[in-house]
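Page 37, continued from 36.
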């Protein structure tokens, strides 16, 4: 019996690692139809699944950064995006885009583990800024809503 995209996206972390796959949450320029979508979606190993993570978006010269809540601080703010599965090569390509070089390196974005805000059994990687670096709040929970001329995929 073959697994559907939704079933495959919900595999346990241990089964994903064994298969060489990584679950990732995307929320900005990697969303389908946006400028960096070609770096992920032709290589995705599952259908995109809607999700949300705790945090807020800040606007950074045409693209967003997700700022998670401070540890130990409750957050009622969430960012909507999509979960999918990628292989090691695609994850490395995304690391380069996000200027993530590894733990304790001089990174632009950090790659951290998060859980879905509505489905805590779903967890994976996401690229974040640890703080807002003085950038303005984007004022939206879905990045396409902050972009003129783009229509939300609600």
């Amino acid at each position: 019996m073959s697994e559907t995209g939704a079933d495959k996206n919900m595999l346990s972390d241990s089964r994903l690692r064994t298969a060489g796959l990584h679950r990732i949450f995307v929320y900005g320029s990697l969303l389908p139809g946006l400028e960096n979508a070609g770096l992920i979606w032709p290589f995705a190993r599952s259908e995109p699944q809607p999700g949300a993570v705790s945090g807020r978006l800040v606007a950074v010269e045409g693209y967003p950064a997700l700022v998670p809540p401070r540890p130990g601080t409750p957050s009622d703010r969430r960012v909507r995006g999509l979960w999918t599965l990628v292989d090691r090569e695609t994850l490395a390509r995304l690391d380069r885009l996000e200027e993530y070089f590894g733990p304790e390196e001089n990174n632009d974005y950090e790659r951290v583990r998060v859980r879905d805000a509505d489905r805590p059994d779903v967890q994976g990687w996401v690229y974040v800024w640890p703080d807002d670096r003085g950038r303005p709040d984007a004022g939206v929970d879905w990045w396409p809503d902050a972009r003129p001329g783009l229509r939300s995929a609600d």
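Confidence is low (pLDDT under 50) at residues 1-7. Flag for discussion at group meeting. Helices lie at 5-9, 13-18, 88-97.
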